[in-house]
Design goal:
single chain, about 500 residues, mainly alpha
C-alpha cells in the first residue's frame, strides 16, 4: 500500500467514529478512496470544538473579569489576566528589555513565550484604549490569548496527524483530550507544545534540519523539550547515522542563540529570570515532593531539593536511554520522548495542571490506544480538579468548599502512579515491538528520518551485494563446469563461497 494513503488507526474507537469522515479504509482500498484533506478538516473541527469548550468553561470567571471569589470551586481560573497587570503588559512594558515598571514583577518565562504574551498585549491595546479599566482590558487580553492558543492547539493536532504517514486519526487522541478542556487556557504552554509538535513532525518526515529549527524555537518557548534531545541522539545512534543528528543539533543551537543572545546582551538579568525563578522555587503543586510533605515528611531545603530532583531525573533518563539502546528494535522517537518527559515531570519540583499538555501529543504518538489513553487522561482531569478544590479550601471565601492537604497528597500519588502505568505500557511496546500497533502494519509507518534513510541505503547496498554475488556465481559456475569436465568436483568451501550473504537489516 502506498505510504501516502492515510490508513485509519487499528483501533475500534476511531474505526467506528471516523466512518462519516471517510474512514476506515479497507485493506485493499485504492488511494482515491480516502482523503487526507478530509481527515485533517475533521480533526481541525474537533480540535476547535475542544478548545471552545475550554473557553466556555471559563465564562463564569470571564464575565466577572476574573474577580469573583468562586474561581477555584468553579474551576475557571487562568493566569492570563493576572499576569497582564502583574508583569506590566497593561502599561505597554516590553519584557526583557528593561526592569519592570513600579508595581510589576520581572517576567518568569523563556523569551519566545514572553513575546508571544506580548503579541496578546499588542492586540489588546489595539482593540481597547487605556481609558478602559485595567480589569476589563485584562479580560480582553485573555480573549486574544485564547484565540492565539486555539490556533496553536489546531497546529499541534495537524502536526501529529502528519507525523506518521497513514495514521492521521491518531491525532484524534489529541483533538479530543479532556485535559485540553481543563488546562489549555491556564497558561501559555500550548504555544511551546505546537512548536515541539512541528519539530517532531518534521523529523519523522525526514527533515532533520528544519526539525532542528523548530526544536530551537520550542526550547526558547519552554524548557521541557530540551530533555528530549537525547532521544534524537539514541534514534540516530541506533540507525548508525549521527550525521543527521549533528545537522539537527547545529540548527537547534543556532536558532536558540539567535532568539536569546540579543536579550542576553541587552539585559541579562531580565532574560535570566526564568532560570533563577526555576532554581529558587521550592516544592510546589502536583509534585511528589509536596505530597511527601503533606504526608508528614520533612521539607528539603532548596539546594537539596534541586540536587535530588536532578539526580532522580538523571537516573530515570539514563535508564530510558539504555532501554533505547538495548531494545530488540530501535524504539520510535515518540516513545523515548514520552518516557523522558514523564521522567522529568515525576521528578520535578512542580507539576502544574497544564504540564499534562506537554505529554498529550507524545502519548498519542507513543501509544495510540484509546482505552489506556483515556484512563490516563481521566486521572489527569481528576488531578486538575483536585488542585482547584485544594486551593478553594485555603483561599479566602472559598474555605471549606474543597479538599484538605492529605486528600490532595493522595490524589497526587495516584496521578503519578497512573502516569507511570501508562509509561510502563510504552516500555513494554519498546521491548516487545510486535505489540506496538504503529509497527504492526504493512510498513513501519513511524520510522524516524535516520531509520528511513539507512533502510534505503541498506536496501541499495544489499541489492549491489546481490548483483556481485550473482556475477560471482556465474564466474564460479563457469569454473566449476570447467573443473567438472576435467574430473575435479567443486569443494564444500566453494559451495559456501557461492551462497548469498545474510540480508542487511537496519532494525
Amino acid at each position: 500500500m502506498p505510504h501516502d494513503v492515510p490508513v485509519i488507526a487499528r483501533d475500534e474507537v476511531t474505526q467506528e467514529a471516523s466512518e462519516r469522515f471517510g474512514g476506515p479504509v479497507g485493506r485493499f482500498a485504492r488511494p482515491s478512496a480516502y482523503s487526507l484533506v478530509r481527515s485533517l478538516r475533521a480533526l481541525v473541527l474537533l480540535a476547535t470544538f475542544t478548545h471552545l469548550v475550554g473557553y466556555v468553561m471559563r465564562l463564569p470567571c470571564r464575565t466577572a473579569d476574573f474577580l469573583n471569589s468562586n474561581r477555584y470551586p468553579r474551576m475557571c481560573y487562568t493566569d492570563m489576566p493576572y499576569l497582564f497587570t502583574g508583569r506590566g503588559f497593561d502599561v505597554g512594558h516590553l519584557p526583557y528589555l528593561s526592569a519592570p515598571p513600579q508595581g510589576a514583577e520581572s517576567l518568569e518565562y523563556p523569551v519566545l513565550t514572553g513575546w508571544f504574551m506580548q503579541l496578546g498585549g499588542w492586540l489588546t491595546h489595539l482593540t481597547a484604549s487605556n481609558a478602559v479599566p485595567a480589569v476589563h482590558r485584562a479580560s480582553i487580553f485573555y480573549d486574544w490569548n485564547a484565540v492565539l492558543l486555539g490556533g496553536c492547539f489546531v497546529i499541534a493536532v495537524v502536526a501529529v496527524a502528519l507525523s506518521v504517514p497513514g495514521r492521521p486519526w491518531d491525532a484524534a487522541l489529541v483533538a479530543l483530550a479532556p485535559t485540553v478542556v481543563m488546562t489549555g487556557l491556564i497558561n501559555w504552554d500550548l504555544f511551546a507544545v505546537a512548536l515541539f509538535a512541528i519539530c517532531m513532525m518534521l523529523w519523522l518526515r525526514r527533515r532533520p534540519l528544519w526539525a532542528g529549527v523548530f526544536f530551537g524555537l520550542a526550547v526558547s518557548a519552554k524548557f521541557y523539550p530540551i530533555v528530549v534531545l537525547p532521544a534524537f541522539f539514541v534514534v540516530a545512534l541506533r540507525a548508525r547515522s549521527l550525521r543527521l543528528f549533528f545537522k539537527f543539533a547545529v540548527a537547534s543551537t543556532v536558532v536558540w542563540l539567535m532568539v536569546n543572545i540579543p536579550f542576553i546582551v541587552i539585559n541579562v538579568h531580565e532574560w535570566a529570570r526564568f532560570y533563577t525563578f526555576s532554581r529558587e522555587r521550592g516544592s510546589d503543586f502536583g509534585s511528589l515532593w509536596l505530597a511527601s510533605q503533606y504526608l508528614g515528611a520533612d521539607a528539603l531545603n532548596i539546594d537539596s531539593l534541586n540536587l535530588w530532583a536532578f539526580v532522580i531525573f538523571a537516573v530515570l533518563g539514563a535508564l530510558i536511554l539504555v532501554l533505547g539502546l538495548i531494545s530488540p528494535r530501535p524504539p520510535r522517537l515518540a516513545q523515548l520522548a514520552f518516557l523522558l518527559v514523564v521522567a522529568f515531570c515525576v521528578s520535578n519540583k512542580v507539576y502544574s495542571p497544564q504540564y499534562v499538555l506537554w505529554l498529550v501529543p507524545l502519548a498519542a504518538m507513543a501509544r495510540p490506544r484509546w482505552r489506556e489513553y483515556m484512563v490516563w487522561q481521566i486521572s489527569q482531569v481528576v488531578y486538575a480538579m483536585s488542585v482547584w478544590l485544594f486551593l478553594a479550601s485555603t483561599d479566602g471565601d472559598g474555605k471549606g468548599q474543597g479538599i484538605n492537604a492529605l486528600n490532595y497528597a493522595w490524589i497526587i500519588i495516584i496521578t503519578v502512579a497512573v502516569t507511570l502505568w501508562f509509561a510502563a505500557l510504552v516500555v513494554r511496546d519498546i521491548m516487545y515491538p510486535e505489540g506496538d500497533i504503529v509497527r504492526t502494519r504493512e510498513f513501519d509507518a513511524d520510522m524516524s528520518a535516520v531509520e528511513s534513510e539507512l533502510t534505503a541505503g541498506a536496501e541499495h547496498a544489499a541489492g549491489g551485494a546481490a548483483n556481485e554475488v550473482e556475477d560471482s556465481r556465474s564466474s564460479q559456475d563457469a569454473g566449476v563446469s570447467a573443473g567438472s569436465d576435467a574430473g575435479a568436483p567443486a569443494s564444500d568451501d566453494e559451495d559456501a563461497a557461492l551462497s548469498s550473504p545474510e540480508p542487511t537489516s537496519v532494525d
